[in-house]
Design brief:
With about 350 residues, the chain is an alpha/beta fold. The chain is built from 16 helices and five strands. It folds into two domains: about 160 residues, 3-Layer(aba) Sandwich (Rossmann fold); about 120 residues, Zinc Finger, Delta Prime, domain 3. Strands 2-3-4-1-5 form a five-stranded parallel beta sheet, with helices on both faces. Strand 3, helix 6 and strand 4 form a beta-alpha-beta unit. Keywords: DNA replication, DNA-directed DNA polymerase, Nucleotidyltransferase, Transferase.
């Protein structure tokens, strides 16, 4: 599936025709549909009928193999942790109890290199889809490097990365980078409206402009608190930080013991970081990038502080973000976090 905001990249690649590079690095923020784009491109390269800018036909013998996840010339490489369906509740009770690896290991890459040493099963292209590329450790990246330097004929490598700076420079230099950016807010909001997402502006803001994450947020537990969060940081957290801390602490707990809460601490800290970043922009007479629909509230906060103070608060959040994953006491963590936040806006300029 190719989302509307990814169609320019599709046209760009299809215009290359036979000059398509042997390795592409699809780079950009998460939640934009890069993996869906890569899968559509892989299907297009293997399809027996598609021509020009057409997507895979979905009907030929090759497309039927793809639909059944049985195409021998489509190779997917990803960490073991991504192989497991999140809906498989019994997974934790099986096996030897060891956590699945979040890295792409050298053995996986070597297996791919070995398969590429054999000719194409269907007599056409072979596609290697590898994601997330930043999950490769140094050894696995170096194992892939030789194939990128001396690619087998009729082979396309598709690497997907949300954090391309984490890749080895040698990997980046041997791929053609195809960049993806968040669509304009109006386009994203129109798409979210078509998906039936309520409070789309807040959802899009909390997800840093990534429409797919915003859609998923609307269907998650976090959707129940997104509006309250924004109202809290805009008003109540300034005068009653401890009361807000108590409410947020309640979000972290399930209704019954052992049940998951409505959200988690790292998510709340990330949302607050994005909110403060927009306050900084308005304090510098710039426009907000994330909470576009909350400009009035952001402007009021910008008037109550100054750039240096808000930047200091933002940098403090960067330092405490790591602690949010393993706090000794979540309630105390939130109280400290919100009291620090309230102090940023006490003194008028």
């Amino acid at each position: 599936m190719i989302y509307d905001w990814c169609k320019p990249q599709w046209s760009q690649l299809m215009a290359l025709g036979s000059r398509l590079p042997h390795a592409l690095l699809l780079a950009g923020p998460s939640g934009l549909g890069k993996r869906e784009f890569a899968e559509a491109l892989a299907a297009r390269m293997l399809c027996e009928r598609a021509r020009g800018e057409e997507q895979a036909c979905g009907e030929c013998a090759s497309c039927r193999l793809i639909a059944g996840d049985n195409h021998p010339d489509w190779i997917t490489v990803r960490p073991e942790a991504l192989e497991e369906s999140p809906d498989d509740e019994s997974a934790d009770d099986e096996g030897d109890g060891k956590a699945k690896s979040t890295q792409i290991r050298i053995a996986q890459v070597r297996a791919v290199v070995e398969r590429l040493g054999v000719g194409s099963h269907q007599g056409g292209y072979r596609v290697v889809l590898l994601y997330p590329a930043e999950a490769m450790n140094v050894d696995s990246a170096n194992a892939l490097l030789k194939s990128l330097e001396e690619p087998p004929p009729n082979t396309l490598f598709l690497l997907i990365s949300d954090q391309p700076r984490k890749l080895l420079p040698t990997i980046r230099s041997r791929t053609r980078v195809l960049s993806f950016q968040q669509p304009p807010a109006d386009e994203a909001l129109a798409w979210l409206a078509q998906q039936g997402v309520r409070n789309a502006a807040d959802a899009l803001a909390l997800c840093a402009g990534s429409p797919l994450h915003a859609r998923d947020l609307a269907g998650s537990r976090d959707a129940q608190i997104q509006g309250q969060f924004v109202d809290d940081v805009a008003r109540q957290a300034l005068s009653s930080p401890l009361e807000v801390a108590a409410r947020w602490d309640g979000w972290l707990k399930g209704k019954k013991k052992g049940e998951p809460g409505l959200t988690d601490l790292p998510t709340l800290v990330t949302w607050l970081q994005r909110w403060l970043a927009d306050v900084v922009l308005l304090a510098q007479d710039c426009e907000p990038r994330v909470f576009v629909g909350r400009r009035a509230q952001l402007a009021q906060l910008a008037e109550r502080s100054d750039v240096a103070t808000v930047l200091r608060g933002y940098n403090e959040l960067l330092k405490v973000r790591a602690l949010a994953h393993h706090p000794l006491n979540a309630r105390l963590f939130l109280e400290d976090l919100l009291m620090r936040y309230a102090r940023l806006f006490r003194a008028a300029r």
